[in-house]
Design brief:
By secondary structure, the protein is of the alpha+beta class. Helices cover 44% and strands 23% of the residues. The chain has a domain of 81 residues: Methane Monooxygenase Hydroxylase, Chain G, domain 1 (Up-down Bundle). The longest helix has 41 residues.
């Protein structure tokens, strides 16, 4: 890769050159992290040996604590190594849709939106709501957002599937238990260096008045954009910006991401069946249950990982689930 960057024609294509440099920097950083961790292991081993020889209980305790921190760092680096495909390093576009069940499911979808916004904040990712369709009485029917940050797609793709909630309904006067469903879809956001050919003749573009969050202005102008890709039937829309032009640009990026994701899935389907079965993202499968009554537990059905503190999970603490899935 160093040889490629030194070629005279390297900067003839600035976008491609930028992507190559980003990849080179990621690999360099990974190698440097492994080197530092190896040094830390050697240092701790030497210190532990001296502490045992001198029967220094305090130092032994400190070494053991440092070792636990090092284990966590190594685990994080192993996870990064699992995110090895080109698309893993991209930003993500996440869409959350309420299932059947009216306001129960719509409220659950909004709870998931909050969970992912909190998770992204914990990771240091930037989020932007690009489409927001409110529920009839409560919650949301659907929300789409961009998640920007290093390996955002690589992490977020672990959340694709159907999420199930069991709780005492806050909308039921009889305080009965209800089960609600919501689906999560995640797509890699295409960068400028990724070419996705779209024929304008294959598009139907509609404008409409915004219905989501946005203040007084949203219902006054038809600034929202809906684009239908006729050959595939894919529909995307954006209503976050005041400018119709900006909404169209974001909707086109969303469409390109959907088409790019479709292409990736076709390529994945041609790979080794064993690997496909192990890591395939099943769009229609129920991946996780969040039980708030009669007991509290969150269980991932792909890895059988369980957590008793459901409130913590719903507050965005989902990294353990993501890591367990990606490392299986």
């Amino acid at each position: 890769m160093n040889a490629v960057t030194l070629r005279d024609d390297f900067w003839n294509d600035p976008e491609k050159a930028s992507e190559i440099l980003k990849k080179k920097n990621r690999i360099t950083q990974q190698l440097e992290n492994w080197r530092k961790q190896q040094e830390a292991v050697n240092d701790l081993a030497d210190l532990y040996e001296l502490a045992v020889h001198d029967d220094d209980r305090q130092t032994i305790s400190e070494v053991e604590q440092d070792l636990e921190k090092l284990k966590s760092a190594v685990r994080s680096e192993e996870l990064r190594m699992m995110l090895s495909t080109e698309e893993d390093a991209l930003n993500a576009i996440m869409s959350i849709h309420a299932g059947a069940g009216g306001k129960e499911a719509q409220d659950w979808a909004e709870m998931l939106v909050r969970m992912y916004l909190r998770w992204a904040e914990r990771k240091g990712f930037k989020t932007t709501i690009i489409d927001y369709l409110p529920g009839d009485e409560a919650g949301v029917k659907s929300v789409s957002m961009t998640i920007e940050g290093e390996y955002a797609y690589g992490y977020a793709k672990a959340e694709v599937g159907i999420h199930r909630l069991v709780r005492i309904s806050p909308f039921d006067a009889g305080a009965r238990r209800h089960t609600s469903f919501a689906s999560v879809f995640v797509y890699p956001e295409v960068s400028d260096a990724i070419v996705v050919d779209i024929d304008e003749k294959d598009l139907r573009i509609d404008t409409f008045r915004s219905s989501g969050k946005g203040g007084q202005h949203v219902n006054k102008t038809e600034s929202a954009i809906r684009i239908t890709h006729l050959p595939t039937g894919i529909v995307v829309q954006c209503q976050n910006e005041r400018s119709q032009h900006k909404n169209k640009a974001m909707a086109m990026k969303f469409l390109k991401s959907r088409l790019y994701d479709m292409k990736l899935r076709e390529q994945h389907d041609k790979r080794d069946e064993v690997n496909k079965t192990k890591k395939e993202i099943a769009w229609g499968s129920q991946i996780r249950s969040y039980v708030l009554h009669p007991y509290k537990m969150v269980k991932d059905h792909r890895t059988n990982m369980e957590v008793g503190n459901a409130s913590r999970v719903l507050d965005g603490d989902i990294d353990d689930f993501i890591e367990a899935y990606l490392l299986q």
